[in-house]
TrEMBL record:
NCBIfam families: L-threonylcarbamoyladenylate synthase. Belongs to the SUA5 family. GO terms for molecular function: L-threonylcarbamoyladenylate synthase. It comes from Paenibacillus qinlingensis. Its EC number is 2.7.7.87. This is Threonylcarbamoyl-AMP synthase. Signal peptide: none annotated. Required for the formation of a threonylcarbamoyl group on adenosine at position 37 (t(6)A37) in tRNAs that read codons beginning with adenine. Pfam families: Sua5_C, Sua5_yciO_yrdC. InterPro entries: DHBP_synth_RibB-like_a/b_dom (IPR017945), Sua5-like_dom (IPR006070), Sua5/YwlC_C (IPR038385), Sua5_C (IPR005145), T(6)A37_SUA5 (IPR010923), TC-AMP_synthase_SUA5 (IPR050156). It is an enzyme of class 2 (transferase). The keyword Cytoplasm applies. Keywords: ATP-binding, Cytoplasm, Nucleotide-binding, Nucleotidyltransferase, Transferase, tRNA processing.
Amino acid sequence: NYWDVNQGAIGATAQNIAEAAKLLQQGDTVAFPTETVYGLGADATNTTAVLQIFAAKGRPSDNPLIVHIADVNQLPSLVQSDSLTTDHLALMQAFWPGPLTIVLPVLAGSLSPLVTAGLQTVGIRIPNHPVALQLLRETGLPIAAPSANSSGRPSPTLASHVRDDLDGKIGGIVDGGATGVGVESTVIQLVDGELYILRPGGVTAEQLHVVLPKLPIHVSEPTEVEASDTPRAPGMKYTHYAPKGFMHIVQGDDVQEVSAWIQQDIDAAKARGESTGILTFEERAGEYRADLILACGSLSEPDSIARELYGALRTFDHQGISYIVAEGVPDSGIGSAIMNRLLKAAGHERIRL
Ligand code: TXA
Ligand code: MG
């Protein structure tokens, strides 16, 4: 069951979304586009349905799912309303619909316990994508939706990525074309008047600071040891996004030195018989020789790097590249999310020159 809402008449589009909504109501899984990445949705109140998400993705059961809603009016039926502070409301006002997931105390019994993986909290967001919003509205349900990739693979930014990973394991895909942001939502939690970024993503720390200038902002780095009092997104402990080949990151202030180092490293790998790849940017792609050089967006427009990152990681796999060197990006703005995902993809193998 694959539907393409871009192809075919507008009527067919509405019809496909209606059909997808019906599947979700019946307890099936459907992949759909959001502004960040494709999600694999199921009725968050239906344990049998949610089980199918974990089964299709091969996802560890201790990793909770994000719940997607169409309207803030759905919140009181899902979370403890008295826990909502003016800071929460300011964030919702500023960033919803959008790539911000807010972790809140769950209203007992409102969701399948599998969604929260036994936690007392639930991550909720309103996605900013017309197809996602229409689908959510038509179901009238809270929809649990992790990224629609096999666990550990790069998240899908195209319907074809979903098909590559999950064909035959899910009820269907609504194809809305390429997603916009390209990396997942920012997951945050407010604790004792301080803001914790549990996963950097589409909303930057700088943007959060503008909305809540007085609030201290902490970033829970995925490299932190597990035993910590800091709230963390359980999902961040898992290996993710890794291409099949070996990958490491090279970073430095002197771009000449970086390109020279990378070229030498790649040449040595080639001499050992590796199939070589370089993940770089439009401005720098001309500097290199390798079997596959991917210009992943432009350094002058970091949003374009985020948008193309996961597709690029998948391309290395398709081309059978066994040895990849990636250039790093400055760790600010959307660059924080990009570096977070690159480091995970590289298993934290990083060389700083
Ligand atoms: O952009 C996105 O967020 C996409 C689209 C589909 O909405 N979804 C997504 O879901 O990335 P997923 O399951 O791949 O990542 C969810 C992250 C995980 O790191 C998980 O541990 C964290 O959110 N999370 C979910 N519920 C949580 C909770 N109650 N407390 C802390 N972290 C939570
Ligand atoms: Mg994911």
